[in-house]
Amino acid sequence: MGARVRRPHGETAQHARLKELAFFWAQAQGFSACAMEVSLPKCRYRADVAAYRWQRKQPGSTAIFECKQALCDLRRDNCHSEATRRRLEVICQRRQVLEARLRAHYPHLRNGDSLFPEFDSQNFIAIGHRGYAGLLRDLRALQNQLYDCTKFEKLVRYRCANLFFLVLPEQFFRDSEVPIGWGALVESNGTLTLTRRPTWHDASEEDRIRFLHRIAIAGTRFANRHTEGVCYCAISNE
Q1: Can you give the CATH number for the domain in which 194 is found?
Q2: Which of the chain's ends, N or C, has fewer CB atoms near its CB within 10 Å?
Q3: Is the pTM of this model over 0.70?
């Protein structure tokens, strides 16, 4: 892995480690252009890790990784309610049961909307099932009560990337608390495991190029910070 990444002021070692693991995990999945602390286009947010995967004769795919080192990073302090959490667990289980039944009754739901078959989504909403739509509304409302998912929602709504991943330690993983449409990378013993696959979100080719440009800017900024001392020494020795 080489030298450790220098941590921004105030960042904990655990959060920096999660970012580093996500950084190398993305590269192992074929995302050859990666950077940390990337200012995203179309919004005011900064991604912990942003990645771009080149695709021959097609627009490349983009991914955002958000690292959470503690439950308080996910939840709003004033909405940490056990009753709400139990309700969320029940609704999540009902959704899983209903989706399994819908797959059985509608075997051709996979809509082939992504460049990669492993990220094809199943468009349950297109069926017009009122019970399923109601479950999703309740699920989103309860998640909003438990943690501040405004950022997560806006990243998806603004189509900031094709894929979104939440990265967190194993002891804090709760499937019901992973935002809808996001994947989950769970850290255990220094290794990340893809526990939930993300949904593919389409984005224009122009937006993907702008995303790649932001990765390049962040990478250049990182290189400048880590070569300042080297350049200064070289000038001093002349």
Answers
A1: 3.40.1350
A2: C
A3: no
How far, in Å, CA of 139 to CA of 143, rounded?
Answer: 6
**The residue type at 221:** R
Closest listed residue to residue 152, CA positions, set 48, 53, 14, 81: 48
Q: What's the total number of domains in the chain?
A: 1
- Judge whether 217 lies within some domain: yes
* 82 belongs to a structural domain: no
Structural domain including 62 reads 13-75+147-236
pLDDT in tens, 146-192: 655 467 877 888 899 999 999 999 998 988 888 888 999 999 999 99
Of 102, 18, 30, the C-alpha closest to 66 is 18
* Cα–Cα dist 152/178, whole Å: 10
In a domain, 61, yes or no: yes
> CA torsion sign, 14 to 187 to 99 to 127?
positive
Q: Is residue 135 part of a domain?
A: no
Q: Give pLDDT tens digits for 5-62.
A: 455 656 889 999 999 999 999 999 999 999 999 999 988 889 999 999 998 888 899 9
